[in-house]
Amino acid sequence: MAIIIDAKDSAFTSGAKVGAFKGAAKNLLNSDYHSLDSYWSSSDLKYMSANSPMHFKAKYIDKELEPMKQTPAMILGSLVHCMVLTPDDFEHEFFVMPDLNFRTNEGKAAKQEILAANVGKMSVTDEQIAIAQKMRESIMSNPEAARLLEPMKKELAFFWTCPFSNLNFKAKLDGSGGTHFIELKSAISAEPGTFQRQCYNMNYDLSLVHYRQGLSHVMGCEPKAYFIVVEKTPPYICQVYLAGDSLFETGHTKWLDAVNKLEQGVKAGKWPGYADVEETPTLDAPPWAYDSKPATAETFADDVLDF
Fold first, then answer.
1. Between 154 and which of 85, 120, 147, 184 could a Cys-Cys bridge form, CB atoms 3.0 to 4.6 Å apart?
2. Which of 67, 69, 65 is nearest to 123 (CA)?
3. CA distance 101 to 170
């Protein structure tokens, strides 16, 4: 069993900055976790899976692409995570922007002062806090969700080196233990079919494999995985799902492909676009085109004008 070190320990902070630390760390703030760029994360691999290696290089290596801005939905999801998993970290991760008139000089000055005092934190509103509280109540009132959350080590961060690619990886799990780990997700709908599509489209299956890799290399176990899903609108239904074997199979294929592309880029400097071939690829009609009605010239012209 690996030793879990406190993130404030100098042995962790000095080693993690250069990718030398291997193991598990507790009490690591999200902002500090994301700043450790000596390790590749699940989010990095998901981006590689969904985009070309050339896009990946532009975003993560050359820093040519603008970082994704936090949307209200993303902020709400982070807020729910904090309230459910690490409520003591609220003041370190969030701040409430007061209702000011930002069109006046006084309001603008007050805003800048507040932002300067809360660098690295997310701005939330009282309304978002109220919604997140209702989502939290729905989660904790679900007996299965409460049972799964109870024995968990919350927001534990894992750091390891992949044995075949020799790349350094990191993962921060919502909840982890010897028998299972959990992923807390907010969703428009927790209905099985809808969330199933969300899992595949958002590459949650790849994330599950990455998290299990971390648990396997650091803790020596490969536990089951559960999704705790809560809807973002009334009545804030909470549903628990066990991740099936097929989800890990599709995720493993995606994970291996992303790791291989990343290894080729980092070690061999190969960052191809959409097709890494010497010959020009042939573009054929898609299968669905044979069953659809072709657009008329008038329709096409209208579409161009609308665009």
1. 85
2. 69
3. 42
CA angle 94/98/102 to nearest 5° reads 120
Domain ranges across the chain = 4-69+141-268
| Cα separation, 39 vs 161, whole angstroms | 9
Tell me which of 24-28, 71-75, 89-93, 99-103 is least confident: 99-103
Any residues with CB less than 8 A from the CB of 170 and at least 6 apart, and which? 33, 36, 39, 40, 41, 157, 158, 159, 214
pLDDT of amino acid 302: 47
Give helix 245-268 / helix 204-219 axis angle, nearest 10°. 80
Task: Count CB-CB contacts under 10 A for residue 207.
Answer: 23
Separation of alpha carbons 232 and 238, rounded Å: 10
CATH number of 4-69+141-268: 3.90.320.10
Which residues, in sequence order, are CB contacts of 173 under 8 Å at separation 6+?
Answer: 155, 156, 157, 158, 181, 182, 211, 214, 215
Question: Counting beta carbons within 10 angstroms of the beta carbon of residue 16, is it exposed (0 to 12), middle (13 to 18) or buried (19 or more)?
Answer: buried
- CA distances for 165 relative to 30, 52, 258, angstroms: 26, 19, 11
pLDDT of residue 141: 97
Separation CA 157–CA 36 (nearest Å): 11
Q: Which of 242, 215, 224 is nearest to 144 (CA)?
A: 242
10 Å CB burial of residue 87 (0-12, 13-18, 19+) is exposed
pLDDT at 277: 61
Widest CA span in the chain: 68
Of 18-22, 64-68, 280-284, 303-307, which range is least confident?
Answer: 303-307
* DSSP letter for each residue of 60-93: IIS--SPPPPPPHHHHHHHHHHHHHH-GGGHHHH
Gap between the Cα atoms of 160 and 271, Å rounded: 24
Alpha carbon of 284 to those of 272, 275, 294, 300: distances in Å? 22, 15, 15, 20
